[in-house]
Amino acid sequence: MRIELRKLRAAAEMLFTHCEEMGYESVEIPHDYYWMVMEPECYDPYTTPTKEAGLGLGQLSDDWSEMEDMLRGEDEPIGYGLVWLSALLRAVGEQVIG
């Protein structure tokens, strides 16, 4: 599978525009911690994740703090930022669909 970043960016823009048209300027997230499964275990549906195999806790407030630091220019964008962003997008999406 190949994902073209240009198309992914366009799709994200369409989705954010849709949220704004629904009246969302911000989204309240009622939880902070979440389960995360690190790669490559998260892509192996035949194995139950364990702590030893990459199961851990993520924290949305920490992910958001990383994004804010990047936006303020305090940190440079890094590839792992997409992982933090993905956790935030999932949480926002789950709240928007209610």
Word description of this protein:
This protein has one domain (5-97). The mean pLDDT is 94. It is mainly alpha-helical and 98 residues long. It has a two-stranded antiparallel sheet. The radius of gyration is 15 Å and the shape is globular. It is built from 3 helices and 2 strands, in the order H-E-E-H-H.
Keywords:
mainly alpha; 98 residues; globular; 3 helices; two-stranded antiparallel ribbon
Could you list the spans in which at least 5 consecutive residues all have pLDDT below 50? none
Backbone shape: globular
For the record, give the distance between the C-alpha atoms at the N and C termini, rounded to a whole number: 30 Å
Order of helices and strands: HEEHH
Domains counted in the coordinates: how many?
1
Please report the number of helical segments.
3
Q: What is the subunit arrangement here?
A: single chain
Q: Provide the structure class.
A: mainly alpha
Please tally the β strands and state the result.
2
